[in-house]
Design brief:
By secondary structure, the chain is of the alpha/beta class. It contains 11 helices and 12 strands. The strands form 4 sheets. The protein has a 5-stranded mixed beta sheet with strand order 4-3-5-12-6. It has a 3-stranded antiparallel beta sheet with strand order 10-7-11. The chain is elongated.
């Protein structure tokens, strides 16, 4: 294998192809023509002596070799980008992509101000946001994203993640305006008899505040709260609550935003059931700690949120 044959531009395109598994999506993301992306893929196939992406009925799938080299390619591109940024990082002229993962409540609450600053100070920096529910830290560890916004804790075995507090998380109860509890004086005893929606983002088996009912003796392993609706993300909670008697325990900004639908209201969680403030962190991996672009993005979060009593 002759290393002089490799073109870093083609390797950069391949990095996105392996992530997107789609030629046209990669072309759109990189503002390139589909034919240019296809040519780059063909050259990378020759270089690696492998198909890398195999066409299936609904797109492409990665070959075993592509899966094995994906992380290495990410590392190479990250190192080259870091080197380039160290040589000539200027927000006004930088042309790059910063990738951020977070669930909708965090993205909707925290990112607009950051994006506004980026648009003003680094107009050619593309911000890629992912809010699809998944294991929060996998793509951070693999190098597929630069940052993660999360209130979750990473695995204790993962020692290469840094973090910064950017918000405190509070909750409200979202329910139909005509719900029997809508005008009631809410108590733990009354709520223990209600039906709730279970939002399981990472396979959680219990409602987010069920342990509070257990502490009060209103629930146990053999006497669970009623949760006849189970969903894997926040997006459908509002429409379900608007049509049923299901109550959702949701982050405050998301619950309040849902009340743009006049059929919905929020109620304060009774004090005995309130969860202590959960902190929302901006996480990043050690590999990006000294990257000038990532340092600059972190500085925006710090200027906007650190020291501010922001709720998410």
């Amino acid at each position: 294998m002759n290393l002089s044959q490799i073109d870093l531009n083609h390797l950069f395109i391949l990095k996105y192809l392996l992530e997107e598994k789609h030629v046209s999506n990669t072309a759109n993301a990189l503002n390139m023509s589909q034919s240019s992306v296809s040519r780059a893929l063909q050259k990378m196939r020759i270089f690696f002596d492998d198909e890398l992406l195999v066409r299936k009925k609904y797109g492409y799938e990665l070959t075993s070799k592509a899966l094995s080299i994906k992380h290495d390619i990410n590392s190479v591109i990250t190192s080259v980008e870091t080197l380039a940024h160290k040589q000539s990082f200027e927000p006004k002229t930088v042309r790059s992509i910063v990738k951020i993962y977070g669930l909708l409540p965090q993205i909707n609450t925290l990112m607009p101000k950051v994006i506004s600053r980026i648009r003003h100070e680094a107009p050619n920096l593309v911000v890629s946001l992912d809010s699809v529910p998944k294991r929060h830290f996998d793509e951070l560890v693999s190098g597929d994203v630069h940052f993660v916004l999360s209130s979750h804790q990473p695995p204790s075995s993962e020692q290469n993640l840094y973090r910064m507090v950017v918000a405190k998380r509070t909750f409200r109860l979202l329910m139909n305006r005509n719900h029997p509890m809508a005008q009631e004086d809410l108590t733990p005893e009354k709520l223990a008899k209600c039906d709730f929606g279970q939002i399981s983002l990472q396979g959680e088996k219990k409602l987010s505040f069920e342990h509070k009912f257990e502490e009060l003796g209103l629930a146990s392993r053999t006497k669970r709260l009623s949760a006849p609706i189970q969903i894997s993300n926040f997006s459908s909670a509002s429409s379900i609550a608007a049509e049923t008697d299901i109550i959702f325990h949701l982050p405050t900004p998301f619950a309040e935003s849902a009340c743009q639908d006049p059929r919905l209201i929020t109620r304060e969680v009774p004090k005995p059931l309130q969860i202590s403030f959960q902190e929302v962190y901006l996480y990043w991996h050690k590999r990006f700690n000294d990257d000038p672009m990532c340092e600059w993005v972190r500085s925006l979060f710090k200027e906007i949120y650190v020291g501010e009593d922001k709720q998410s």
